[in-house]
Amino acid sequence: MDVRPEFLALVLGCALVTALPRVLPLVLLAKVQLPPWLADWLRYVPIAVLSALLTMELSSGGIPGVAGVTVALAVAAATRSLLGCVAAGVAVYWLLG
Amino acid sequence: MILGYLGIGFAAGVVERAAGLSYAEVLLLSTVLYAGSAQFVVTSMLTLATPAPAIVFTVFLLNLRHLLLAAALAPALRGVPAWKNALLGLQLTDETFVVASGKSRLSAAWMAGLNISAWAAWAVANLAGAALPGNTRVLAFALPCMFAGLLVFQVRHLGRSRLALPVVCVAGLAALAIHPIGATALAATCGLLLQRWMYAPNSSR
Predict the structure, then answer these.
(1) Which of A4, A82, A94 is most worth mutating to test chain B (most B CB atoms within 10 A of its CB)?
(2) I need a labelling partner for B118 at 20 to 30 A (CA). Which of A51, B26, B87, B194 fits?
(3) Is the dihedral of CA B151, B157, B158, B161 positive or negative?
(4) ipTM of the complex
(5) Single pTM value for the model
(6) Do B24 and A19 touch (CB under 8 A)?
(7) pLDDT in tens, B165-185
């Protein structure tokens, strides 16, 4: 039940940079308007981060990893169930690996 | 939607525990950071031995999108004092935004009730996931699967599939060659430029 000090520092750092964009617009009551290009750019950031980290994870997963993620993508696209997609992907990885 | 929310929390707990975090650390992450996709990103980057400043910066980029959500909620909370708005904003998530954004006027008490219920449910779901027994190596594979699922949902949410595919490909390929932060910035910029090029009115640009 330990918390490593460097982990605590990491979580606090992440929490701080998460709090700023959550709080600032509400405190300033939207007096500042985001420039449209920035708003559009921000909309692409989540899919870009997820794609980048997905390939980083996959580059160490081998054939079972690629197969599992392919199944997970297919299930997510077909069913809209996140839990189903995770369960199917892990099951394929477990069977092959 | 509530089931989906708890499911994400459960999966977060599973992969955090599989990545070697203690129960106390899972609780800390889910209550203090309290951001679904960012928790997955932190877990992944920790297992990839990423230096802490790079993790914090990636989380910053990822959660900058809350600017859009908070700015959209601000008009409905106009009558509420700024310090109360600050507290309410701290617990803003994609899910609570969806619940709250249907209303034209929000009271601070109602919003606080929504926030605190979602926050407590999130912590419980995370801890329940962390308690799931099983082979750590297999359970850890829930993380890339979660990325895959979240990616599909984010692409659908974006609603511009013609632009999403190039962004996904650029980010994925660039991540093999350069730092994921650089890959993210590059891919988002490509998406923005493509969008401007494809949807630009012919007369003005």
Answers:
(1) A82
(2) A51
(3) positive
(4) 0.88
(5) 0.83
(6) no
(7) 999 999 999 999 998 889 999
